[in-house]
Specification:
The protein contains 10 helices and 6 strands; from the N terminus they run αβαβαβααβαββαααα. The protein has a 6-stranded mixed beta sheet with strand order 3-2-1-4-6-5, with helices on both faces. The chain has 305 residues and is α/β, with parallel strands linked by helices. Helix content is 46%, strand content 9%. The chain binds iron/sulfur cluster.
Length: 305
């Protein structure tokens, strides 16, 4: 065999090396972001048994994949168990997840519950079924969590899901409310965590392609994706394309709220405000100092109050 590469082989070799380097960088970034979110919100503790909800979509596969990597090097010892709810949607390839999970050696449980028929029966044709479907699924997953004795329930929502929810609540619900990285379920009995909270969706798309996860399409139920969510998602993608970094900044804003500079009297006692007679360095300014661009707009005077 000749040791000299032909031009085509050499181009292919370079391309493969580049792809490998990119995948390595992506893996490091994903582990860093997930590890950071877990640390910032104390999502996983020593001795936890974490139930990873696996739908067969790219996000939940990536969640399990990254948690498995972190498990090997995390200082805290914790267990993972993957759970899939087979909702009996027509054409659901029921062997795909058990085969995958057996191959990678992860303990798993498949819960069979025909929520599809229930939703079809209750919701008129053409109406979106997601809201009832999600509520049913949540109830079932909480029950399974009890049966499996898990201490945390991990969901695969990512940074862009969280921001989309924030804008949906603002535009259509009149609330400043997103999707928290960690929450206690409404019944007060389950701790839900979102370890992908800091991860942008495009990284998950790339990781799923690199890892060749056996993706199960999410259109089997025949429900239309929520149109409003689709529009908000397109808006965020457009902003990110035109103004790189803006979506990151918006997520950072969710971690830096200033109740005294919003208008919710339940979060800040505006009615009881009194004069202090002392200048406040962190006080009100027409523009925050991190907006240097505003100060340089011709004719715009930045007023320090
Ligand atoms: S897309 Fe289908 S399976 Fe997913 S939440 Fe909506 S109705 Fe349920």
């Amino acid at each position: 065999m000749s040791a000299v590469l032909t031009e085509n082989e050499s181009v292919r070799f370079d391309r493969e090396r580049r792809a490998e380097r990119e995948a390595h960088k992506l893996e490091k970034r994903l582990c860093r972001l997930v590890g950071q979110a877990i640390g910032d919100y104390n999502m996983v503790e020593q001795g936890d048994r974490v139930m990873v909800c696996l739908s067969g979509g790219k996000d939940s596969y990536a969640l399990l994949d990254i948690l498995l990597k972190l498990k090997q090097r995390a200082p805290a010892q914790f267990e993972l168990v993957a759970v899939n709810l087979d909702q009996k949607q027509p054409g659901f390839p029921e062997q795909v997840l058990p085969e995958y999970l057996t191959r990678i050696g992860v303990p798993f449980h498949i819960e069979n519950q025909d929520t599809y028929s229930v939703v079809k029966e209750k919701i008129p044709d053409g109406k979106t079924m997601c809201s009832l479907c999600s509520r049913l699924r949540r109830g079932i997953l909480y029950r399974v969590a009890d049966e499996l004795g898990v201490t945390k329930i991990a969901l695969g929502h990512h940074r862009d899901d969280i921001l989309q929810t924030f804008f949906l609540n603002m535009f259509f619900g009149g609330k400043l409310k997103a999707m928290p990285p960690k929450l206690v379920s409404d019944d007060g009995r389950h701790m839900v965590i979102r370890p992908l909270a800091y991860v942008p969706e495009h990284d998950l798309v790339d990781w799923a392609a690199h890892r060749r996860f056996p993706i199960i399409p999410c259109t089997l139920c025949g429900s239309q994706e929520n149109l409003q969510r689709k529009q908000v998602s397109a808006m965020l993608k457009e902003w990110d394309r035109k103004h790189p970094g803006r979506v990151d900044t918006m997520f950072t804003a969710l971690q830096n709220i200033v109740p005294s500079h919003l208008a919710d009297g339940t979060q800040y006692d505006f009615r009881g405000l009194t004069l202090t007679g002392v200048a406040d360095d962190g006080g009100d300014k027409a523009f925050d100092p991190q907006w240097p661009a505003a100060a340089s707009v011709p004719g715009l005077q930045v007023i320090q109050i």
